[in-house]
Design goal:
145 residues, mainly alpha, Arc Repressor Mutant, subunit A, 7 helices
């Protein structure tokens, strides 16, 4: 299982919006420059996040994007599932979630199901606020002389 660039960029964008909103809209240009991600790629990401009601958007010269909820109300899993779909560690598990013809006798299915549950529990246990707090803690530890 590997999280795609789209999933990683979605998390970075959500964190950027949480850090830089100051009660107002954040433009894709600003976020693009801070994150080093092309505007064209961010347009694809915000379309997914807006459609999933994780972001709200406003058009026009004073427009941009902002979070719909407080960062503590977003789980990392919620954000990643918008861009990645179900985060299953094995294709056989994805098939089982739908309609696998082997689910009755696949000897490795319990292992994959257990891993799937652990991954999702971890992703759901972390909020955007947790990531922001970890980033701020790390930045407070870095200093120069």
């Amino acid at each position: 299982m590997k999280i795609s660039a789209k999933g990683r960029y979605a998390l970075r964008l959500m964190l950027d919006l949480a850090l830089h909103n100051a009660g107002g809209w954040v433009t894709l240009k600003e976020a693009s420059e801070r994150q080093g991600i092309s505007i064209k790629y961010l347009e694809q990401v915000v379309a997914l996040l807006t459609r999933a009601n994780l972001l709200k958007s406003s058009r026009g010269p004073q427009g941009g994007y902002m979070l719909v909820k407080h960062p503590r109300e977003y789980s990392v899993g919620e954000v990643l599932r918008v861009t990645e779909g179900e985060i299953a560690p094995s294709a056989c598990l994805e098939d089982t979630l739908k309609h696998s013809h082997r689910k009755g006798f696949c000897p490795t299915l319990p292992f994959w199901r257990g891993l799937y549950e652990v991954i999702n529990a971890y992703l759901n246990s972390k909020s955007l606020q947790d990531l922001l707090d970890e980033q701020q803690h790390f930045e407070s530890l870095t200093y120069s002389i």
